[in-house]
Amino acid sequence: MMAEESKKNKASSWGLLNNYQYLCRKATMLNAMENTRAKKKCHQKIIIAGVKRKRTDNHYKPLDTIKLVKKTKLSNTLQESQNTLSSEDKSTDASKPGDSVFVPKACDHHSLVTALRDSWEVDSGFSSEASPPASGRSSPCLSLCSTMVVALDCEMVGTGPGGRCSELARCSILDYHGNVLYDKYVQPCQPVTDYRTRWSGIRSYHLHNAQPFAQAREEILSILEGKVVVGHSVYNDFEALDILHPCHMVRDTCTTRLLSRLAGFPRERCPSLKILASKLLNRRIQVGKRGHCSVEDAQAALDLYKLVEGEWEQELQNKLRDDSAPHKPSFASSNHYMQDEYWPDDVTADSQ
Question: Is 160 exposed, middle or buried (0-12, 13-18, 19+ CB in 10 A)?
Answer without folding.
Answer: middle
